[in-house]
Amino acid sequence: MIDTELATDLAMSVHPKLVELQLSDYAWASRKDEFDRLAEASDCELKHSVSFSVRKPAASTLLGSGQVESIAEQVEASEITVVFVDHQLSPVQQRNLEKAWNAKVVDRTGLILEIFASRARTREGVMQVELASLNYQVSRLVRSWTHLERQRGGVGFMGGPGERQIELDRRMIRTRIKSVEKDLAHVRKMRATQRAGRKRKDMPTVALVGYTNAGKSTLFNRLTESSVYVADKLFATLDPTLRKLELAGSNTVLLSDTVGFVQNLPHELVDAFRATLEEVIEADLILHVRDISDPETATQKQVVEETLAELGLEGDDAPPVVEVLNKVDLAPHISSQTGEDISDSRVALSALTGEGIDDLTCLLRDWMESGMETLTLEIELSDGKTLAYCHQHGRVLSQDVQNDILSVVVRIPAKYAGKLAELSR
Questions:
Q1: Where does 371-423 sit in CATH, by number?
Q2: What number is the average pLDDT over the span 317-341?
Q3: CA 366/CA 148 separation, integer angstroms
Q4: By C-alpha distance, which of 143, 139, 180 is closest to 162?
Q5: Percentage of the chain surpassing pLDDT 90?
Q6: 252-267 exposure pattern, b = at least 16 Cβ within 10 A, e = fewer
Q7: Nearest one of 101, 26, 46, 37 to 295, comparing CA atoms
Q8: Tell me: domain 202-355, CATH 1.10.10.60, correct?
Q9: pTM over 0.85
C-alpha cells in the first residue's frame, strides 16, 4: 500500500500538446483538467500545471530541450518531487527526464496504475492491479514510484524500495504474470459459476457503466440503500459491488457497480480488469450513466461506447443499453424519453436529490415484465396457495371478491403461466 505520507509530496503536471492530436481548444482544456484531477486523486499536492506545444516529439525526452530546461527550473524552485506527464513515455524518455529534472517522472499509464493500486481493496482487485502493473513494468524493470524513499513494507508489487520488486528481472516478472493470470482465471471461473446460479434463480443482472465520476456509485447507493464509497474523485470505485434491487411486483434484479472509464484507458488495465468487467459483459441490461451537466458529456459518451466495443459489447448479441442522464439538478432542461424499444429510452434523474429515480425503477420494472403474460383467474377465497404463487412470481394488478370467489388479474412470466393455470383449476 502507498504510505499515507504520500499526501505531503509536491507535484506538477506537464501537458505536451502534440500537434498530431489536432484537438480543439475546448477539448484540450478538458483533457488538461481531467489529467490534473487524476494527479490530485493520487493524493499528491499539485503545485503547478504547465502546457507545451510539441510539433515533433523528441525520441529521447518527448519534449524539446528548452522545454525540459524550463521545467527543471520550476522543479528545483518549488522542490517538486513528482512530475506527472500527460502522455505515454517510453522507458528511455522516462529515465532521461528523471535525470534532467532530478525528480520522479510518472506518465499517464503509470499514474492511473498508482491510483488503482491505492484504491483496490478486495483480493481480486489487488491481483488485477498487480497484473496491470507487471505488464507495464516488464519493459522497464523499475518501480513506477521509487521517489518515495520513506515508503516501507507493503503488499505484492507495492513493496518499498530495496524490496523484491525492484530486484526482479524480466524473466521473474513474466513468471509472476503467469501466476497472477492463473489466479484471475480461477476468479473468472468462480464468477461464471455464480452467474450461472443467478440465472437458475431467474435473477437478471443490471450493470452500471459510465465515465469516471459520472455518479454511478451515488446512483447505486440511492437505488439499493447501500453505502458504497462515494467521493468527488476520479476512480472512486474500483472493486465491483453487487446488490439486490427490489422492484414493484416482486421483481428482483442484481445491480452491479463497476469501475469508471477514462480517455486513453491503458490497455494493460482493460485486460487486467476483464474479470471485473465480465459483470458488464454478462449483464442482461446496461445502464450507461452520464454526467449530463459536464460540457464534455458527448466525448465521454464516445469513450464509454468505444470501451464497451473493445470488450466485445456490440452487435446483436450485446445486451440493451439505456442512457441514464444524471445530475439533472445541474441541467434542468434535460428530460426523459420513452422509446418503443428499451434501448431507445433514456432516463433523466439526479442520483443526489432523488429526482427521476421513480422513472428509472418503473423502466426497469417494465423491462422485467416485457416477457410476461396477463392472466385473469377465478380462485376460491380458501385457495391461499394459488394467490401466494401469484404474488411470488408475478405482479397482482387487481383483485375483486364476489360470492366467495376471488377474481385476480396478474402479470406473470410466461414460464410460470402454465403452472399457475394448473393451480387455479
A1: 3.30.70.240
A2: 85
A3: 54
A4: 143
A5: 23
A6: ebbbbbbbbbbbebbe
A7: 26
A8: no
A9: no
